[in-house]
């Protein structure tokens, strides 16, 4: 269980897929390693993405947005009802509201974002009762690995020693 709610059997599997996408973002594009995959209720990948802000010169090209854009095109629909979005970092306000507007059913994220997290850490946009759509939220799935990957990205940029991906998370970045 995560956040008092049951975690689906497939959540860890899909989060590992999102982590692989995050690794690709860093390796191939030198982007902040955040990955996202949107999966249908039947377990089919609808869309996937990773941060492309730097490569695309696009401040809205967060992993979640990229995955939802690709899913919308693949399904020929702006509504992604019944889907689950797996993302390696808690979504920001922009991404949280896109999740609501797309009618994503579930959000599963790994690491919390203590600076801009909008799904319970800093803000709780998805929990606001004024929305006409509710999103089921599960945080913390493979959080340590995702957090350490992010920490290592910034440590490498600063020339600092890296953490083992499975090492206890730290607050230093």
Automatic annotation (TrEMBL):
Gene Ontology molecular functions: tRNA-specific adenosine-34 deaminase activity; zinc ion binding
Active site as annotated: 64 (proton donor)
Xref: PROSITE patterns: CYT_DCMP_DEAMINASES_1, CYT_DCMP_DEAMINASES_2
EC number(s) given by UniProt: 3.5.4.33
Cofactor notes: Binds 1 zinc ion per subunit.
InterPro entries in the record: APOBEC/CMP_deaminase_Zn-bd (IPR016192), CMP_dCMP_dom (IPR002125), Cytidine_deaminase-like (IPR016193), tRNA_aden_deaminase (IPR028883)
The CMP/dCMP-type deaminase domain, residue ranges: 9-136
Family of this protein: Belongs to the cytidine and deoxycytidylate deaminase family. ADAT2 subfamily.
Name of this chain's protein: tRNA-specific adenosine deaminase
Origin species: Stenotrophomonas tumulicola
Gene: tadA
